[in-house]
Amino acid sequence: MHFENQPHIPPATPGGSTASFTSLDIPHRVKKNRGNYNCGRCGLPKKGHVCHLPPTSTTTTTPTQTPTDSSVSVSNSTSRPPPRQQYSNLRRALSFDDSDLRCDSPEVEIDESEMDLFGSGCGKLPVSCMWEILRRLPPAGLLAAGSVCKGWRETSRRLWRAAEELRLRVPPRSQPGFVGSVLQKCPGLSRLNLRLESDLDSTMFACIAFSCPNLEVVEISTSETAVNRITGDELGRFVADKRCLTSLKMEGCSNLGGFVLCSSSLSTLWLSDLYCLSKMVFNCPNLKEISLDFSRQENDSTDLIAMVDGLGRSCPRLQNVHVASVRLSHAAVLALTAANLRGLRMLSLVLGTEITDASVVAISQSYSKLELLDLSGSSISDSGIGMICNVFPGTLSRLLLALCPNITSSGIQFATAQLPLLELMDCGMTICDLSSQYPTSDESGDFELQTTFKNKLHLIYQKVIIKHSRLKKLSLWGCSGLDALYLNCPELIDLNLNSCKNLHPERVLLQCPSLESVHASGCHNLLIEGIQSQVNTQLHSSLFFSLSCCTRLGGFLIFE
Q: Which InterPro entries match (predicted)?
């Protein structure tokens, strides 16, 4: 669904090539010699010449052979990637993103009258064969192929016209004209994904709007060096002009200032890095999914209470709501519950330290059919978990409570025991080792601090016992105060134990025959060996261990 922020890394492009928008910088063409007047065998002029040399194997013309004629020198001068033979599933035409290698290709019909043979410049390949070859090229190769000969130009033109989805990486210092020249080749484009390494300004935004009148899905992501300069007025005009737009996802929205979005077709809206918004007006009656990720700066002046109140009045069909902000409070939760969103199924309110057990009461009274609840970073306690279990036992399948310091192992065990449909649970950084937060009296010389530490020793070295028949993913990352773990979960496939540095190998028992991967960064080698030994004994196969850094399961996971 991974706004985390989804937590997976796409594979590298096969053959070591990078499918990127830098392909639009077409290299300088090699000068073509017009006319082949010399014999290809002996080099003598062809006029009145009968060659006495026998034909070589390189001059035979077969449908699958690469032409050796000098007329294809432009194509050879470009950096074409090696053939991707190890992938059996074809990608959609012009879908060059590495993470989309398994997309189905579009079904474009070719008339029987077009199934002829091209001239010698194309090696006499049928149209269908040429189509299958050119469709696998990145933008650079496809643009260069169109300049080889008439047959290749026609096939590449038809490929551009048939494209429905385009994924491009815009490199630094690129010109908006390059983006427009590619987009204008795709009149039927409905899905656009841009990965920007250069700044996004009004000129490039207008170029996208003008070149793609029928866009349905737009995703714009920015690198750390890129700046999104789009204002709220420009965003509002873009949404209003796109009558077919159903999904808009944009990163780096720190310069919006405020916006008014009016659309009868928009159903999905993701905006991240929001900051100091003076107004937020949503006039989207068919909006079903919204994700608003605000800046982590304390001086953010956005009025979340007014924003949530407006959402309830103008977007009655909302089903998935995700808001991440340090300014989330109990008053904002009350405004959301007063909106009476009857279709709400997934609610994520992240980083709101002022969200308490009273907020859980308000949520449970207004929305009793939630399937996902994410209150990570809040101040709820085990009592709040008890209320969640009392209200949602028949619907809740995903519960995320990471970074909630008031939760103990008792609350975690109670949730897994009372929620029979639970499939995912994230309790990262809930059971922490307080000894790392309180220095000793020898270091600080503060007797009162030492007394406080001793009074909190009962929270250290807790154990978790979970028996669940449907739980598939469990995350306990950062639970440094956990020293014993007993799991009896036959459906568990993913276990995150990153930074559980005090977990003892002899106090870990896993009865999880379906376990596929364990994340154990920052854990002792003895613990890793003990877990691997237990699981291998059950599965009689090797277990995948991930020693990479932990990524929280919350955030945009609700929209997977």
A: F-box-like_dom_sf, F-box_dom, F-box_LRR-repeat, LRR_dom_sf
CA pair distance 416, 420, nearest whole angstrom: 7
Helix (H, G, I), strand (E, B) or coil at 2: coil
Collapsed DSSP state (helix, strand, coil) of residue 38: strand
Residue 400's closest CA among 308, 477, 514, 515? Answer: 477
**Contacts with 21 (C-beta within 8 Å, 6 or more apart), sequence order:** 139, 168, 169, 170, 171, 174, 178, 179
Q: What is the pLDDT along the chain (560 residues), one digit of tens a residue?
A: 444 444 333 333 333 333 333 334 433 444 444 455 667 666 666 666 666 666 544 333 333 333 333 332 223 333 333 333 333 332 222 322 333 323 333 334 434 344 443 443 455 667 777 777 777 777 667 777 777 787 778 777 888 888 888 888 888 877 767 777 788 888 888 999 999 888 888 888 888 888 888 899 999 999 988 999 999 999 999 999 999 999 999 999 999 999 999 999 999 999 999 999 999 999 999 999 999 999 988 888 999 999 998 888 899 999 999 999 999 999 999 999 998 898 999 999 999 999 999 999 999 999 999 999 999 999 999 999 999 999 999 999 999 999 999 999 999 999 999 999 999 999 999 998 766 544 443 444 444 444 444 444 445 679 999 999 999 999 999 999 999 999 999 999 999 999 998 998 899 999 999 998 999 888 888 888 888 888 777 665 555 666 554 434 333 333 33
- Best CA proximity match to 244, nearest among 214, 288, 208, 283: 214
**Three-state SS letters, 443-470:** HHCCHHHHHHHHHCHHHCCEEEEEECCC
Token reading at 82: 């090696």
DSSP-derived 3-state class of residue 72: helix
Enter the pTM of the model. Answer: 0.72
Q: How far is CA 497 from the centre of its chain?
A: 23
Long-range Cβ pairs for the range 111-119 (8 Å, 24+)? 118/149, 118/150, 118/151, 118/152, 119/149, 119/150, 119/151
**Rg from Cα positions in the chain:** 30
Asked if 327 contacts 307 with a C-beta cutoff of 8 angstroms, the reply is no
- What CA–CA distance (Å, rounded) separates 540 from 93? 42
Cβ-based neighbour number of residue 542 at 10 Å = 9
DSSP state of 56: P
Closest CA to 517 of 499, 500, 496, 536: 496
Q: 293, 305, 291: which is closest to 254 by C-alpha?
A: 293
Nearest to 256 by CA among 282, 276, 286: 276
Phi, psi of 159 (to 5 degrees): -65, -45
| 74 vs 325: CA distance, rounded Å | 53
* Alpha carbon distance 121, 17 (integer Å): 27
In the chain, the amino acid numbered 204 is: M
Q: CA nearest 97: which of 180, 198, 166, 144?
A: 166
Q: What's the angle, vertex CA 33, arms to CA 32 and CA 39, rounded to 5? A: 135
Tokens of 532: 């691997």
Work out the angle between the directed axes of helices 304-314 and 330-338 (0-180°, nearest 10). Answer: 10
- In angstroms, the CA 256 to CA 303 distance is 15
